[in-house]
């Protein structure tokens, strides 16, 4: 049975001359709930040296880099004492909080790549990004659904979508989010979701490879119902479980690293309104392990 | 184009007498503007483009294409329509130097939303349609955006045909370009005459002729008007041109954008300056002058020569006696200095400037770099002055400042706000040659404006010494520079990042970003246009790669993304040579014409056929896959409806095109 995180940190604090990578390893191996925040990656040059890179590759690189930096600079006192056994890893050099008077000039957009069918994760992810950026409201949240086949062996139906969408609606109700939308829904799914939603989606994302060949029925439906069709170039599976485990394996000699599963990935973008200038971009990823942390199956 | 005051223009002698007065008050007007507006901030992105068109009459029976001199009539009709329009007109029209030219711009600027990039082409199409609707196509009238009309200055090139000899052409004294081809607004003839009189002789432009199989060697023309000056001035193996019309009668494509404050304007001015030669080469569209194939593909040096008002003393041909300075460049040419402190170390050419003016500006609180920039522009005399506009209120008016500012025609222009206006600090990008179709023109415009967003988002740095930018400007104009040219370009354009950067390349990157010119480790190297735009294997990733990274991060609607993708592809393929530049296409057309005799001569018939085909391509009647493939955009006249609604809610005050 692994020692709870807080105990580890107390123990470590009393040890002298412990290599920092060892501290990192101990902390990682003592937790079951891990959140990684890359901070603002907008000036991470090695990402831009490649001629093209999709979100999957970007997430992989950023997470690895964040973990590496953390492992070599970790200070146990950074741990989040309040959260029960949850470890939040951030890159303090890259953190950029948004000040009060800056906020009105900025547009914060978020895309949640849900990897488990759990509506609570939507709220959790939005809360996390608000906390990290020190903001109260997110301007838009787009929801990408988990790949269905791995979980269910069924076809996507609006019944899968609605519970997740209800979380989005609740966020909208409490004014945590100003606009909510979907990702990669075809006309059929979009129409059904739109029909049954209380708060209608105002955005649906479409993969950029089809931006010049959008099916006319989708275009027509979007136009009639005031839905913006925006492009994205994200892969279907932005963080496959083996990839996540591989990233962790690099920073931990824990035998149980293959128990980890990614639960959600969030990408945020901060733009200066009306000037088209990107101010910040980052990823937050949450993963967990042990059966007790697995979500309830969708009924 | 420039200041269009109404009233009575002064003679050159009188203008010269007022030169110091104009400079003195111009500087005071600048100081007043600066003091009042230097802290202006928070301006949103607003931008616009300017497209110039030539009016042409095609005579199918006689196989001639002539430039139609009824530009002013057409402009009057366009302006009337604008005035009578019940709502804000989507297009605006302005006169240009030649009476066969008209300039069109959007009625209101575009804004800072991605959707605006999808409106440029539609607005350009609207302009072209409006213009064409006033022309009589039955009579062969049309409008084409040639950068240079192939038979400009050839016998009988105008409609109506006009006698052309120096005794009749009192403004230009040109052997080839009649005064009636100059816009009848007094400013333009005044400029023409004053430039010539100040210089003390006609302007003298000599452009190398293209040596084809049968081109005479040496290439020497005899001038039927038997002009002694011409015989002396014309260089062997060159095409000789002798007036302002040959330069300012060329068309171009310009973009202006508003920065959020003065520092951002200075920053963008500096960052775009090294890109001027790149875009000149990429947009090359001017390989034929006065009916001859030239050995250059661009208009730049021709225009530089066409308004070169420097006296022999200023050109260093005689010792300084009456004039104050030896000046290396014409008042139309590439910029001579950067504006930001970060770029100061790259200002490596001697800047000729008026020390008193420089000191006066600094005493007024303007920093040294900016003071030097304006003190350099103000070495020039005003070359046009109206009697009604001599004594001005320096607090309220800026005509004297604009007089000097607008007759320094440079590759970039840094534009202070006008007094008493909501307009902010702006930057103008001026080197691009105009293309035949709206798709192509939109592509170049969108590429540059989008690039400014990428420069600001990623803090890119393209700075290289000014002397190298000047070398690039000459390289860019050479025949086929887009495929064969080698251009100085910065090796490391990304800023150094302290943390999480790849540790292997970090030391090298940081070093090259920060260091001054060392002997063995230069910050810049030679690249081809293809490498600059599309990237090098294992080296610079290319401009398009950086732009795609930006496009993947921001919210873009599907139609805008489709259009922008097509625009980027056009530029990429022009850069790789897969698609022809307009210059290459024109050359190929001439050289493949059945009547072409391999002697570099573009006859009336060849020019007619070229014009006809260009007209059909422009109108979309004829495809031209060599020029722009089968690329097609999803351009729209307005923003997507949802965005439109939100915009009205969120930003009701922004006076932009929606």
Report on the architecture of this protein:
The complex is a heterodimer of chains A (299) and B (658). By secondary structure, chain A is α/β, with parallel strands linked by helices. Chain A is built from eleven helices and nine strands. In chain A, strands 2-1-9-8-3-4-5-6-7 form a nine-stranded mixed sheet, sandwiched between helices. In chain A, strand 8 and strand 9 form a beta hairpin. Chain A starts with a helix and ends in an 11-residue tail after the last strand. Chain B is of the alpha+beta class and 658 residues long. Helices cover 38% and strands 11% of the residues of chain B. Chain B is built from 24 helices and 17 strands. The longest helix of chain B is centred in the last third of the chain and has 21 residues, at 438-458. The model of chain B is unreliable at 500-520 (pLDDT under 50). Chain B: GO terms for molecular function: ATP binding; glutamate-cysteine ligase activity.
Kindly name the structural category of chain A.
alpha/beta
Q: What fraction of the residues of chain B are assigned to beta strands by DSSP?
A: 5-15%
pLDDT averaged over residues of chain B: 92
Q: Which stretches of chain A are poorly predicted, pLDDT < 50 over at least 5 residues?
A: 292-299
Radius of gyration of chain A: 20 Å
Query: Which geometry of chain A do the CA atoms define?
Result: globular
Largest sheet of chain A: 9 strands, mixed
Summed up, the helix count of chain A is 11
Distance between the termini of chain A: 32 Å
How many beta strands in the DSSP annotation of chain B? 17
- Provide the succession of SSEs of chain A: HHEHHEHEHEHHEHEHEHEE
What is the number of beta strands of chain A? 9
Overall mean pLDDT of chain A stands at 84
Strand order of the largest sheet of chain A: 2-1-9-8-3-4-5-6-7
Helix content of chain A: 25-40%
